[in-house]
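User: Some background: our group keeps a shared notebook of sequences we're curious about, and every so often someone picks one and asks for a predicted structure to add to the entry. Today it's my turn. The entry only has the sequence so far, pasted here. Could you supply the structure so I can complete it?
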Amino acid sequence: MSNTKISKRYAKALFEFSQEEKIVEDIYADMAYIQNLCHLSKDFVAMLKSPVIKVAKKIEIISAILDGKVSEITLRFLSIISKNRREFIIPSLSEQFILMYKDSKGLKEVNLFSATKLPKAVIDEIAVTMEKQIHKTIEINESIDESLIGGFIINIDDQQFDASIKTKLVRLKNVLERQV
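Assistant: Of course. Here's the predicted structure to add to the notebook entry:
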C-alpha cells in the first residue's frame, strides 16, 4: 500500500474523530504547524524516515519538539502512529488532513505556475473562472517557473491546464517534424 493511501486513512480517522469531538479547528492548527515544521526541517523528516532510530526514541523526539505547540490529542495520535511503525507518514498525514479540512470548508487549493509574476487582476480572474466551474472557493498558490517562457500552468488535484508558451512551442515543433 502506498504512503499516500496510508496517510489518507489515518488523516480520515483523525478528521472524523476531530469532527465528533468538535475540535477540528484545533487539530487543523496542529496539522498546519506540523506541515510547516516538515517543510522547514529536513532533519525532522529524515528522523521520521530513519530505520536506524528506534521507535521509542522517535516518540521521545516528536514529543520534545511538539510538546506545548500542538494539542495533547495530536501528540497521542502521533504516538500511536509511531508505535504502529508509521511515523514516516506524518508529513503526508498533515498534508492530507489539511486537504480534508479545506474540502470540508468548500476551499480548493490550486497551483499556478507562470513565467513571471502575474498581475493580481489576472490571478483574481483565474480564481473567479475556476470557482464558477468547481463551485468552491479557490486558494491560488502562485509559483514562478521561467522555463515556461510565457503563459501559465494550473494544477488542481490531479488535473493540469497548460497554457504555457513552452508547451505550445513543443507542440508546434512536433507538428513541423512530422511534416518533414
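Suggested note for the entry: The chain has two domains: 3-103, 106-179. The chain has a mean pLDDT of 94.
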